[in-house]
Amino acid sequence: QVRLVESGGGLVQAGGSLRLSCAASGSIFGIGVMGWYRQAPGNERELVADITRGGNANYGDSVKGRFTISRDNAKNTVSLQMNSLKPEDTAVYYCLVGKFWGQGTQVTVSS
């Protein structure tokens, strides 16, 4: 069993920044891809960014150039630095490690 603990969500004004973190613990053996997804009310869950163990990152089109994903393989953590936030970034953000989902953290961007 894998346990994921997310932190860093909150309320921020448009143009501001937030940093999300996700720490994985439990039965972890050679974690592959780690990533962040988000889901806004009425919308499907969508990829924000993911990153391979070797550091290759992939971003959703709407966040390219504004968000940066990183990971620490030694600590089994993945982080998401979110800059130039927009109201349309408002959503619940979920960490995904392998096939395991975090509980979600709310990000709200006010205009």
Describe the structure.
It is built from no helices and 11 strands. The protein is mainly β.
* Average pLDDT taken over every residue: 95
Shape descriptor: globular
Q: Assign the structural class, choosing from mainly alpha, mainly beta, alpha/beta, alpha+beta, or little secondary structure.
A: mainly beta
Q: How do the SSEs run, as a string of H and E?
A: EEEEEEEEEEE
What is the number of beta strands?
A: 11
Q: Please mark out the parts with pLDDT under 50 across 5 or more consecutive residues, or reply none.
A: none
- Helical percentage: under 10%
- How many separate helices? 0
- Rg is 13 Å
Query: Termini separation (Å)?
Result: 40 Å
Strand content: over 45%
**Biggest beta sheet attributes:** 7 strands, mixed
Please provide a brief summary of the model.
The protein is an all-beta fold and 111 residues long. Helix content is 0%, strand content 55%.
Keywords summarizing the entry:
four-stranded antiparallel β-sheet, 11 strands, 111 residues, single chain, mainly beta
Topology:
Blueprint: E1 2-7, E2 10-13, E3 18-26, E4 34-39, E5 46-51, E6 57-59, E7 67-72, E8 77-82, E9 91-97, E10 100-101, E11 105-110
Parallel strand pairs: 2-11
Antiparallel strand pairs: 1-3, 3-8, 4-5, 4-9, 5-6, 7-8, 9-10, 9-11
